């Protein structure tokens, strides 16, 4: 038994990445969980609209954080602002038809507003839009679709290149007439097809089983989903290019999945996450997919209101693609495509013979 | 004694090859000023012990590693074939699927691709195994498939890293038949091997020791240039210049003097390679160093 334990210890000591993960990850998770696991929302972004906006604004409870006032707006503009996620609450300061409109897609924000305004009889009864019953499934299911795709996509593709490396076929690819981008795109294309099928199944399951509405344009959702899948699958390939074996690849994939679940706004509202760790959420693709999926499915958000998350997914896609191609370039074409080659003092081979 | 190492491959580079290349893996110098010429229609063998630098040399030749100095002359990737030590076949694909993948990658597609795959399946006697998963094939069959995959596009330069290691004698013979046919068709072939009998079949041989050239030339030129004399011993010997081969003892005498009771014998390539290594390790060479 001791001989076995000693052998395991020696192997573990050589696998520095695993040791680092075992030691550092619990600390990181504790800190991130500690700062991220908050459902409380102290302030709710609010737009005050209508002729009496300037007067009403000063009388609102401090919980409603007024970000804009529009004296020329009516109900339609207010609803449109909520649809675009410009604010969580729109207070219509119209003496004839006063109203407080609340975005039901922002579940925790809306619940906080309802609780806060419950003891304020002078204010009109809040009207919850898009998710009138404040059903959790309506808000969670669109985001969960992204989480499922990230699980399937990133983990599956993270094994792709490392499997070639371990079986010796990467060496073969290096001498074949492939460009690094051919390998990247060729690697993710089949998974892309499978993930699209997965997505369709998950969307229909969400609609039928949980009664989640699909209020917006399927095309906008599709564009967001394609961009998101490209990043999620690309991250898997990138992980694969930096991993020496399948164990490392899986570990790295899990390390990218955990923060996405905790810091993407999927479970904990991003607004309530401490700013010290919130920025991590802005680097994660699931954050933007959650915004797009909830926006399109629940609020029927128009395309131009989703340009920021779409653009961020595009940017992340370009970064992941660029880094993967660079890594592939190192593995696949260290000495160019052929012909007569002299030395390159700046580039030294690192792989073992 | 000096000059016994043949110099044909080093000095008269023709066709493809490498010229005085040095390759480093971080702090380790894997190859140090090594040259190799690979002639058209000929087999060039690279021999040496494990860690001698054979794989690194072949990887440099196909462009999988970049030397820090020296020159590599190789055709475009589309005209190069390579069988790595791996051997680089997909175990979870069938024989046919492996061949189709490589054929497509090299642009040998459509009817021409199908014809070429048939040709290769017949040549490698893998027709009956075409639908089988490669992971379930024997080592010899996998190596034949790897060779077929490397030549699907009819390369001008074919580089084989120990294609017969771990392969049974019958499969070895079949692989050599294929290699011989390819050379006869004009393909320039460089192969690494740990088997001296395979090196003897090559038109030229490069012997590596710890990343440096130990000897090079035709097998005959390497053998004929052995310095000193080789003797067969009647009994076992502890002399550092003696070794056991095929049940009998041999001893190299750098100055030609005969050990007591020994009989003079003609060295073959295996003897020549042992003597070359002994010469370097015993420091009895011209400078106590390997030749460049």
Folded structure, characterized:
The complex is a heterodimer of chains A (353) and B (292). With 353 residues, chain A is an alpha/beta fold. Chain A contains 14 helices and six strands. A five-stranded mixed sheet of chain A has the order 2-1-3-4-5, sandwiched between helices. In chain A, helix 5 links the parallel strand 4 (99-103) and strand 5 (126-129). The longest helix of chain A is centred in the middle third of the chain and has 31 residues, at 180-210. Chain B folds into two domains: 8-92 and 140-217, P-loop containing nucleotide triphosphate hydrolases (Rossmann fold, 3-Layer(aba) Sandwich); 222-281, no CATH class. Chain B is built from nine helices and 13 strands. Chain B is globular, with a radius of gyration of 21 Å. Chain B has helices at 8-11, 54-62, 95-105, 110-123, 139-150, 169-184, 196-200, 219-224, 269-281; strands spanning 16-25, 28-38, 43-48, 69-74, 80-83, 157-161, 188-193, 204-209, 212-217, 229-233, 242-245, 248-253, 263-265. Chain B has 292 residues and is of the alpha/beta class. Classes of the chains: A alpha/beta (353), B alpha/beta (292). The interface between A and B is large, with 30 and 45 residues.
